[in-house]
Design goal:
Elements: E1 4-6, E2 9-11, H1 14-20, E3 30-33, E4 36-39, H2 68-81, H3 87-99, H4 117-131, H5 136-140, E5 142-145, E6 148-151, H6 161-180, E7 191-196, H7 202-210, E8 214-220, H8 223-235, E9 242-246, H9 252-255, E10 261-266, H10 299-311, E11 312-321, H11 327-336, E12 343-349, E13 355-361
Parallel strand pairs: 7-8, 7-10, 8-9, 10-11
Antiparallel strand pairs: 1-2, 3-4, 5-6, 11-13, 12-13
Helix pairs in contact: 2-3, 2-4, 3-4, 6-7
């Protein structure tokens, strides 16, 4: 028989396991061949502690002989027991990072691959952070956005899939403008864009990466966001066409009074203040200034509208990503304020069929 040492106890049979653990926590996965019985995973309830540099005092840690499959199974179980959302996805993303993979493909095929003690320790550390509800993106320190991999760190806003769609709408708008101007010639930088609330630089850097004709100015009220955007621009080799400034949305006119832009894009804070406390725990690691949109969620949106009316060139476009309740309110604001010098164009739905992206236009 094959004996397994778990938590200092020798387990050489199912009978031994039954004497050590409650029936409801016995392993569900065994592999047997003839008289050999190999214990693949032991799920313990209540959780027991494996000393690992003082970590996991309330969770089941992995051992130095864990495989990829063991680690993912234990992590998924632990996250689920602590009511962490998307437990399986989190466990897989953390493992992909440990293995140095950019995607989740092939992880299940590597389930019997042993992990080094260093990898086990690292995975335990990340699992512990995820149990404490740290976002996966902050734990692994990077995240993919469209064609780019961005470095991320708290408290800068984590880019969402919806914002990838926003970039797609802006790129189509730029392409339309280029075709009207006789085509987009690679290397030319004659589309001036302003990104209000740059965060990690996701919007600005994607536009720069996917359209060589773009010249970007990015602003944020947070110095941490400004620094992270600059860092990512250098990492991606896009810094030569980007200017990043620390500035509030309601100070744009005085800061850029001699500038004008073809396109302004913004994913501003739009969550009503009274709803912030009810957000998932993960969002409380992000900068509140990047989430809190004031009493009705439109505080910063109004400032962006005022700035866009002044800073857009005639014929220029403003693109906003907002709460699904906001498009009709923004349309009403624009139509009622005749001094705003902006025309409402339309709104677009996100991939979940929610009204999300507003398109406005400055008349010629």
């Amino acid at each position: 028989n094959i004996s397994v040492i778990f938590l200092g106890q020798k387990i050489s049979s199912v009978g031994t396991a039954m004497s050590l653990f409650p029936s409801q926590s016995l392993p569900r996965l065994f592999r047997g061949c003839g008289k050999c019985l190999s214990l693949c995973m032991v799920a313990v309830s209540p959780p027991r502690t494996v000393p690992t540099r003082g970590l996991c005092s309330t969770t089941t840690c992995l051992t130095s002989t864990s495989t990829v499959g063991d680690a993912v199974s234990v992590c998924k179980q632990q996250l689920a027991e602590h009511n962490v959302p998307e437990a399986e996805s989190s466990a897989l993303h953390l493992m992909a990072h440990v293995l140095g993979q950019k995607s989740l493909c092939g992880i299940h095929e590597r389930s019997i691959t042993p992990l080094s003690s260093k990898q086990v320790t690292y995975y335990n550390e990340m699992m512990s952070k995820r149990i404490d509800r740290h976002p996966v993106q902050y734990i692994i320190g990077e995240w993919d956005f469209r064609t780019l991999t961005l470095d991320l760190k708290p408290p800068s806003l984590i880019p969402r899939p919806e914002t990838e769609e926003l970039v797609g709408h802006v790129l189509k708008d730029i392409e339309h403008r280029s075709s009207q101007d006789g085509g987009c010639s690679p290397g030319e930088t004659n589309i001036c864009c302003l990104d209000i609330g740059c965060g990690s630089g996701a919007i600005s850097l994607s536009l720069l990466s996917e359209c060589p004709k773009v010249q970007m100015t990015a602003i944020d009220i947070s110095q941490a966001a400004v620094d992270l955007t600059l860092h990512n621009s250098v990492k991606l080799g896009l810094e030569s066409r980007l200017s990043v400034v620390m500035c509030a949305a309601d100070s744009l006119h005085s800061r850029f009074e001699s500038c004008s832009f073809d396109v302004i894009v913004s994913n501003p804070p739009y969550i009503p203040s009274e709803e912030i406390s009810a957000l998932p725990q993960e969002l409380h690691f992000e900068d509140r200034h990047a989430l809190d949109g004031g009493e009705d969620g439109l505080l910063v949106v109004r400032a962006v509208l005022q700035s866009a009316a002044t800073l857009l060139k005639p014929g220029g476009s403003l693109w906003l990503e907002v709460d699904h309740r906001h498009p009709p309110l923004i349309e009403s604001l624009v139509n009622q304020d005749t001094g705003l010098c902006l025309d409402w164009v339309t709104y677009h739905h996100d991939f979940q069929e929610r009204p999300r992206f507003c398109h406005l236009h400055k008349p010629c």
